Amino acid sequence: MPADELAEREEHFDYSRTLIFDDVGHTGGTQYMVMKMLGIEARAATHAFMLGNTGIHEGKPAVVRRLQEHGVEHVVFAYGFASPHDKIWHIEDLHGGKQRPWTEQVNPLLSYQPKFRQFVRPDVQIHDLLFAFEQTSKG
Amino acid sequence: MQPQRVIWVLTQPVDLRDSSKWDRLEALGKELIGRIGGDGYIHEVVSSRVLFPQVVAKLKGMKFSTIVNVAANNFTQPLRDTFPDTPVAHFPISRIRELKR
Fold first, then answer.
1. Between chains, do B58 and A51 touch, taking CB under 8 Å as contact?
2. CA-based, 20 to 30 A from B98: which of A10, A75, A129, B34?
3. Hey, where are the domains in chain B?
4. Inter-chain touch B36–A109, beta carbons under 8 Å
5. What's the pTM?
6. Chain B nearest C-alpha distance from A132 (Å)
7. Mean pLDDT of the region A108-119
């Protein structure tokens, strides 16, 4: 059963000093959910992103300050951006199958879709990841 | 709200080690700068080929018991290469949710 599988994994890994890695940290919802689901204490976690949001999301601190407020000591990122001043687009926005809040802005990009498709492996379930991310962010 | 800066992020699902694909992908990204929407709507392009080594450099010297990669799987092997003595688990958030059901 899936729950058993996760329990087994939880036993297998030592989460006493964990690095949680994500490509983009936006709201902090995903990172908070991962810590909660895997039973990782905030003070034992280091979070690393390639891009980290230092701004505000829906009136609340975005990922960098949110994690720090939760007690995470190390939040490491290579490139900072600050919503709502900055907006991030992913390569997935070219796929066209995912309706995002800024769809109208993305539509002109769809003309580039054939060019970008050559880089995307067919087995990658990008939309599932994005959907889960957005659902988590709302929580 | 109209953003003042739009950043195009080139991350998954391209293998970080595949230089030829990155060359073409980044060239396409640069082609998009200033061209969308007629008003320079994409202002900046950043890619994981450049950013991944930068974030790894900032992690140098830190010791971890486990690494949990919640991003795409193409970052798992580069993380294992970078931290050869540390277990790296690929747990995308969708998979964690699925397992918790």
1. no
2. A75
3. 1-58, 63-101
4. yes
5. 0.83
6. 5
7. 67
